[in-house]
Amino acid sequence: MTELWDIYDKNKNKTGRFAERGVYEFKEGEYHIITVALIINSKNEILITKRAETKKKEPLKWEITGGGVKAGETSLQGILRETSEEIGMKFKKDEAIFLKEIRKDETPADFKDIWLFKSDSPIKDIKFEDGEVTDAKWVTIDKFLEMKENKEMISTIDFGKEEYNLALEKIGNKKVLTN
């Protein structure tokens, strides 16, 4: 099935044009939106998922749940769809906390919107319905950063201590990292 993305300008305004995922080659000054879910439990652990072997880019690496925002969707609608499709977690709009936007200017350029969710779902309750991911686990921030350093995570992870501390602040938890 063809997946279309809205094309945005550098100010995150829709241009009225569309890109077919995997086919369209973005030109300079054109962006699309990627949305990711930072899911944190009451132990301040992060939920990560393992990409399926069938993924074209970076199969079998770990990531934070997310994906491209489809044409006509908002960033929030996109992340609610992605978490439902990829891991069977059905969050409500009012459970989402916008954490941060990152603009990446290299081609293909994108805006990455990081959404924050709180959940204590046991791993056994996570469903891999669409086949994009095959495993999930809760990890501490130290383990997450170690995996990132060891290149066990996908290369497009733009998340570190600063974002983690911001997330904990936004959900009202104590900061655990100071440097």
Q: Which outline best applies? A: globular
State Rg.
Answer: 16 Å
- Report strand %: 25-35%
Query: What class would the helix/strand composition place it in?
Result: alpha+beta
Stretches where pLDDT is under 50 for at least 5 consecutive residues are none
N-to-C series of helices and strands? EEEEEEHEEEHH
Reported for the largest beta sheet, the result is: 4 strands, mixed
In total, how many beta strands? Answer: 9
Can you offer a commentary on this structure?
The chain is of the alpha+beta class and 179 residues long. It is built from three helices and nine strands. The chain has helices at 75-87, 141-149, 161-170; strands spanning 4-8, 14-20, 31-40, 46-51, 62-63, 66-68, 97-104, 109-118, 133-139. Strands 6-3-8-7 form a four-stranded mixed sheet, sandwiched between helices. It is globular. It starts with a strand and ends in a 9-residue tail after the last helix. The mean pLDDT is 92.
